[in-house]
Design goal:
By secondary structure, the protein is α/β, with parallel strands linked by helices. The chain is built from 17 helices and nine strands.
Length: 342
């Protein structure tokens, strides 16, 4: 039988609502911090055994229904010849931003089996360690978000440099998106071949765009990445409530919802024929258990036991989150939804 998450993504009947958490592999776990005391981020991500260990830690601790691979949104661009520093408190920083056609032409599209061998080996280890009912989730940054880091050179809220490039130099933008899409499509396809049961396209900052700009400057390339695998896909963006119909048209068996929209309202915008994932505000987990429980129950009530709901946060686990609350939340979702189906 396919893993629970795979069946939910296909809107098939499941024993309980599957639950996992974005950024569950790391950040809040003391066992992850112990690994990081001895190894850098890129060392963990680039060593299959360490990557697999960090990926499996939250499954052991929280009892979640899936393991999401430990990787950074910028992992695939390393194989394209770009140097990225992960600066504490800032995020990905690119020393030489990509802003001209010459910059784009210097980017290479690597052989995924060679360039991403550590990630693929880690997937094989994780798939071998998990029970059949638990899924391995492959992970890839969305093309707009990654392009944003490459063009801006560091995280941005306004994306003014990116938008100026899109509007003033559309050929440069299209060239960059073509290169990223070729690389990312190969990356996710290789993850699926290695044993990933599901792939999530994580376009963190796509909500900075208007629907019209999304359709013109992002959708065609995201569609190609999502179509590159024959396993279920999750299409997620933050601040993207106005983009949900367009994102659903672009692709993804599952549309991820952040916390800024009620789950049933987001589901209606994405289309009832799609599965949805979400959507507890990660900051709720910084409060008392009573508030966490009430918020989770409201989301489950809005899902109403319909086929196709995957419980998750509306973004990643925050570093200050108490791991015990995460475990209690996973248990609540699993037990409550078993009862609802009884």
């Amino acid at each position: 039988m396919d893993p629970l998450l795979v069946r939910a993504a296909r809107r098939e009947p499941v024993e309980h609502t599957p639950v996992w958490f974005m950024r569950q592999a790391g950040r809040s776990l003391p066992e992850y911090r112990a690994v990081r005391e001895r190894h850098s981020f890129w060392e963990v991500a680039g060593t299959p055994e360490l990557c697999a260990e960090v990926t499996l830690q939250p499954v052991r601790r929280h009892g979640v229904d899936a393991a999401v691979m430990f990787a950074d949104i910028m992992t695939p661009v390393l194989g394209m010849g770009i140097e990225v520093d992960l600066v504490e408190g800032v995020g990905p920083v690119v020393g030489e931003p990509v802003r001209t056609i010459a910059d784009v032409e210097r980017l290479r599209v690597p052989d995924p089996e060679e360039a991403f061998a550590p990630v693929l080996d880690a997937i094989r280890i994780v798939r071998g360690e998990l029970t059949d009912e638990r899924a391995v989730i492959g992970f890839c940054g969305g093309p707009f978000t990654v392009a944003g880091y490459l063009v801006e050179g560091k995280p941005s809220r306004e994306f003014a440099t990116v938008k100026a490039l899109m509007y003033r130099e559309p050929d440069v933008w299209r060239g960059l998106m073509e290169k990223l899409t070729d690389c990312f499509a190969g990356y996710v396809a290789a993850q699926a071949r290695a044993g990933a049961d599901v792939v999530q396209l994580f376009d963190s900052w796509v909500g900075a765009l208007s629907p019209a700009d999304y359709e013109e400057f992002v959708a065609p390339w995201s569609a190609r990445i999502l179509a590159a695998v024959d396993v279920p896909t999750i299409h997620f963006g933050t601040g993207a409530s106005t983009l949900l119909p367009a994102m659903a048209r672009t692709g993804g068996d599952v549309i991820g919802l952040d916390w800024r929209i009620a789950l049933d309202e987001g589901w209606a915008l994405a289309g009832e024929e799609r599965a949805v994932q979400g959507n507890l505000d990660p900051a709720v987990l910084l409060g008392p258990w009573e508030r966490v429980e009430a918020a989770a129950r409201e989301i489950l009530d809005r899902a109403n036991a319909r086929p196709g709901h995957i419980f998750n946060l509306g973004h990643g686990v925050l570093p200050r989150t108490d791991p015990d609350l995460v475990s209690r939340l996973a248990e609540l979702v699993q037990e409550r939804t078993v009862e609802a189906r009884a």
